[in-house]
Amino acid sequence: MNSTDFSSLSLKPDLLKNLSSLGYESMTPIQALSLPIILSGEDVIGQGKTGSGKTAAFGLGLLQKLDTTSFKAQSLVLCPTRELADQVASEIRKLARAIHNIKVLTLCGGTPFGPQIGSLEHGTHIVVGTPGRIEEHLRKGTLKLDNINTLVLDEADRMLDMGFQDTIDQIIEKIPSHRQTLLFSATYPDEIASITDRVMQNPTVVEASSVDEESTIKQYFHLTNTDDERMIALRLLLVKHKPDSALVFCNTKNDTQDVADELAYYKFYAISIHGDLDQRERDQALIRFSNGSVSVLVATDVAARGLDIDDLDMVINFNIAHDPEVHTHRIGRTGRAGKHGIACTLYSDREMRKLDALEIDLAGCNDPLPNDNYLDKPLKKPTMTTLKIDGGKKQKLRPGDIVGGLTGKGGIPGDKIGKINVGSNWSYVAVSSELVKTALKKIQNDKLKGKAFRVRILS
Fold first, then answer.
1. What domains sit in the chain, N to C, each tagged with a CATH number?
2. Is 364 exposed, middle or buried (0-12, 13-18, 19+ CB in 10 A)?
3. What is the pLDDT of residues 167-222, one digit of tens each?
4. pTM of the full structure
């Protein structure tokens, strides 16, 4: 028997029979790595992209130990959006169809509250929902989590992006500490590590991607002998490569602002961060870049410290770094986790000694610039746009309220909402650019938590 066959696992006969009828014979990498540990009752951190088969991995784990005679919620699955929660609930129902009378209940914002209360009163085995709506049910006393023995945090990185960390903490406080916790995430930022340290017991980390995955950064060097040539070269490279996210490094604050202003003049979606900005301006710039509503961030090395962007398509050194370590650190921000990244460095004949100091061999990577005709090509518009709401924690506004306000009747789908940042007196939410006007009207017309908040599109 192959060790990747589902039949090699100690699953209930009904579950195995149903898997076979569904055509599930061999496990995907994430299932083969995580399922034996999940079935042994241990905590697991699973790193794998959407479509890796993680839902079946945790779904089979919670179905295996379900007590069907008790109609109290025994498993809770938290998802970032209603769309994902619906998919997860549907998959679990499919996996459970050979076991009679299993109730899987979906509790999400953007749908009426009343019918959910009625469903809860009839009892349930498995609850799948979004953090905001789950927390609302807990607050109103309509959901009890005293019997939860399995907690699943699905797409945990996305839930943190959407600002749900505090809400998740409040939910976990209501769950027995003696439980199994399973966390799945496509990426593993520092915030995830802080959650796992607090809420998991000696978790085993499994990663579906290849252990040999290496950075795939292509380096190019472009000769530009005048300031005008250098600026045109920057525009040409951005138009040619069309990055969703590009970080441009300058060596001085003045250059940073001048380059960003010049790019903005030519209708590039660019913004700068440097030491002369106040904290609010800096925060707003970083939020817009990290949520994908600005494509190009122009920064000094000092200002870019602490910038944690995993999916950086491109780094451009508008000015050459002062030493090899800084150069290596700059270009190492792209091409992470096996993704392809591009690093371009602009230099002049007078700067050959600087390149020598970097110990760069130009052979094979001294690249001619694209033809000037590229400047006539259309610019790539960011996929997301940021809405600023003049309300935050002091006004009792939470990420769940914003998601619920945007996804209700006549609103936008939850998977069209990006990162959410809630401050003391303001909130930023990224929404899909083609739906930003719908999102703006929804908040303006329907209010949030019954209150009217000033909202505008940042451009």
1. 6-207 (3.40.50.300), 216-376 (3.40.50.300), 384-457 (3.30.70.330)
2. exposed
3. 999 999 999 999 999 999 887 777 788 888 889 999 999 987 543 344 578 889 99
4. 0.76
